[in-house]
């Protein structure tokens, strides 16, 4: 049974089943006290018009009246007549393959403010359109859970696609769609246009994509283009959107259907190769590949004669080589072997090409892995050539310049020797120069492997004194679901913070893998360490004076304080009463990073909001225990998929943020043994110095590099400094 607003269609594959199906339909109508208009009903129809289409057991056909109206139309002479023609075509575009390409002359005739002209190209396109509609295709209807295929095509002006199903080894069309490219889309690369065609298909035919597995029939590496990490922002966005569907990418096979002949070529705007009368000369085939492992790099070479005989060889690369260099060495080794055999005509295949012969390249890939493995010498079957140095060595060239002073010289002298120029104005500019605020290290993103595994904890306050002596708030945030817990406190003692972690994290969500906090005594103390050790919780600390290390909880703190400020106005002392409401609003609001609310990420369904009581929704107005339980079970079944989609969105968001942030980075690196100064903290600041105290203290020695931008320090007498320090809080010490 199909329902379209107020139109219903009951279909049966067999006449004997039709009466039973009608009985079920009338039973549903009686249950909900619905009535039908007898004058608009028809029963036992083998062929009939439904929603302006002709529906029969053969499939869906175009309305003959609309086809006849278009075929009887004379060639237009006025703009309105051209618009009428395009309107008639739009009503039939589901049945016309590549309809946009067929109508390009009509669109060009209407373009601009000048009077439209009916050109010979328009007349030719008009006649071809009539011929095409003389034998309109019959569209098929897919079965439930049937796997469907889609053919994509890109032309100079449009992207087109056709959804098909296969029955008795014949591919039957389901839906034709075509879209004209916008001015910006005309500048897309070919692979981006092909991805755009798939993206338009998923939006236009969303019902089919959600209900069926879709096989994208393409001979181009579309899946690799959408899923590679260094892909452009546009392709990455499309990849995230397409990840919600069950899409498979398979090579094209012979098109089994005359109505699909227009989709033989994926890029129809490419010029066809010129016909040549030369006799094809038999060629040898060379397949090369490279592989890398912890033991080094290797290359595989496979040479195939015209008769099919195979010659194999492997190359072990003993010097440090990049992927491109290893690929070049593999190619040079193969060409050297071909030259030794006096081969004159040769076709080369490798992974660097977009389309390769996958079966043969699998052999060369195995040879390359053999050459790079540790135990390759013990096999003694494949000859292995060892390269001690690159085949083509390029000598490094140095440019000798005259050493002399420049604009940096006085600044270097001031930083190293505290020496200022004699000119007072210049000395003042150097002494009070603006300190660059560009970040010193690339952005590092933090991901949690599963819900409630990694928490960030921080304090807010002191705030306005609230009833009960409440002055502080402690906040905890889960890195995966973005769920937040908060509690108002009178004091920030070790016991209060540890009790919060027990009551609001462990007792509610289980024992986490790790908890991240700052280096305050409330979290860095013996009591908290014993608590974490007893439960097997890893305690991580952010770098001193570097709250960005625990940026997730800092961001939530900012949201809570901003929302409290908006709600309280002048009554700041009531913040403790408003904290649960603000926390509830945060949990029910969709997060930009995940696209979901923390509540739905945690429990699998959305909470019922007060607005749904005032303006009833379906789940509050019609409540049935069985339907409610079934709906909740369905939401829980989709919870893992929802969480996976949210993590894909989060990864894409973090990549965009890191890409923008890293553009401004001016890296500063230290190595073990360097002497540095570290910024003075509140605990190490000399007493009674106030704002006149020193900003930097030291020197200290770099003892260890934990990761780029994070260092372990020690004093000059070898005493280790307790916490790691971020590069932004360090500066080089000039002796």
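Sequence proposed for the structure above (735 residues):
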């Amino acid at each position: 049974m199909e329902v379209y607003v107020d139109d219903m269609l009951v279909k049966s594959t067999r006449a004997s089943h039709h009466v039973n199906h009608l009985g079920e339909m009338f039973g549903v109508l009686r249950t909900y006290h619905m009535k039908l208009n007898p004058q608009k009903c028809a029963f036992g129809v083998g062929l009939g018009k439904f929603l302006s289409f002709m529906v029969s057991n053969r499939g869906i056909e175009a309305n003959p009246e609309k086809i006849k109206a278009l075929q009887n139309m004379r060639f237009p002479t006025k703009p309105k007549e051209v618009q009428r023609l395009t309107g008639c075509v739009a009503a039939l575009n589901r049945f016309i393959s590549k309809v946009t390409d067929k109508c390009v002359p009509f669109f060009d005739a209407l373009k601009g403010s000048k009077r439209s002209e009916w050109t010979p190209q328009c007349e030719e396109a008009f006649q071809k359109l009539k011929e095409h509609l003389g034998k309109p295709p019959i569209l098929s209807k897919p079965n439930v859970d049937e796997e469907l295929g889609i053919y994509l095509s890109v032309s100079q002006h449009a992207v087109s696609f056709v959804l098909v199903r296969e029955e008795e080894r014949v591919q039957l069309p389901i839906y034709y769609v075509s879209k004209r490219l916008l001015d910006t889309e005309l500048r897309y690369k070919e692979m981006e246009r092909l991805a755009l065609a798939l993206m338009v298909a998923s939006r236009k035919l969303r019902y089919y994509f959600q209900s069926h597995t879709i096989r994208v029939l393409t001979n181009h590496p579309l899946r690799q283009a959408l899923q590679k990490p260094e892909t452009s922002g546009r392709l990455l966005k499309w990849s995230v959107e397409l990840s919600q569907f069950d899409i498979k990418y398979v090579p094209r096979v012979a098109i089994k259907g005359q109505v699909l002949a227009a989709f033989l070529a994926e890029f129809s705007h490419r010029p066809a190769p010129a016909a040549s009368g030369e006799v094809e000369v038999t060629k040898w085939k060379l397949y090369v590949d490279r592989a890398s492992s912890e033991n080094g790099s290797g290359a595989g070479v496979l040479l195939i004669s015209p008769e099919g005989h195979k010659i194999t060889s492997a190359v072990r690369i003993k010097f440090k080589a990049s992927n491109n260099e290893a690929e070049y060495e593999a190619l040079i080794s193969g060409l050297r072997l071909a030259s030794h055999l006096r081969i004159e005509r040769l076709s080369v295949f490798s992974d660097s090409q977009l389309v390769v012969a996958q079966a043969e390249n699998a052999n060369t890939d195995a040879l390359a892995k053999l050459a790079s493995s540790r135990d390759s010498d013990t096999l003694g079957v494949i000859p292995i050539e060892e390269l001690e140095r690159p085949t083509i060595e390029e000598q490094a060239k140095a440019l000798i310049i005259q050493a002399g002073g420049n604009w940096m010289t006085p600044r270097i002298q001031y930083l190293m020797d505290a020496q200022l120029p004699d000119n007072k104005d210049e000395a003042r500019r150097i002494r009070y120069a603006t300190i660059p605020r560009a970040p010193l290290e690339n952005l590092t993103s933090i991901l949690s492997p599963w819900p409630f595994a990694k928490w960030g904890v921080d304090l807010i306050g002191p705030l306005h004194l609230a009833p009960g002596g409440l002055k502080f708030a402690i906040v905890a945030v889960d890195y995966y679901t973005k769920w937040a817990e908060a509690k108002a406190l009178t004091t920030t003692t070790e016991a209060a913070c540890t009790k919060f972690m027990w009551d609001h994290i462990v007792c509610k969500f289980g024992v986490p893998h790790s908890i991240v906090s700052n280096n305050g005594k409330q979290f860095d103390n013996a009591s908290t360490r014993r608590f974490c050790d007893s439960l097997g919780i890893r305690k991580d600390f952010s770098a001193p004076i570097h709250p960005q290390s625990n940026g997730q909880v800092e961001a939530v703190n900012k949201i809570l304080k901003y929302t409290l400020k908006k709600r309280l106005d002048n009554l700041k002392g009531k913040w403790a009463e408003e904290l649960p409401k603000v926390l509830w609003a945060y949990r029910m609001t969709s997060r930009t990073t995940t696209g979901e609310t923390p509540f739905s990420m945690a429990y699998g369904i959305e909470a019922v909001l007060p607005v749904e009581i005032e303006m009833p929704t379906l789940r509050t107005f019609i409540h049935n225990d069985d339907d409610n339980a079934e709906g909740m079970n369905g939401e829980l079944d989709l919870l893992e998929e929802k969480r996976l989609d949210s993590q894909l969105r989060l990864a894409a968001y973090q990549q965009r943020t890191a890409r923008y942030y890293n553009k401004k980075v001016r890296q500063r690196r230290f190595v073990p043994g360097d002497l540095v100064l570290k910024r003075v903290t509140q605990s190490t600041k000399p007493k009674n110095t106030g704002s006149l105290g020193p900003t930097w203290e030291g020197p200290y020695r770099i003892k260890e590099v934990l990761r780029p931008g994070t260092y372990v320090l020690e004093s000059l007498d070898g005493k280790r400094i307790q916490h790691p320090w971020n590069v932004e809080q360090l500066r080089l010490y000039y002796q």
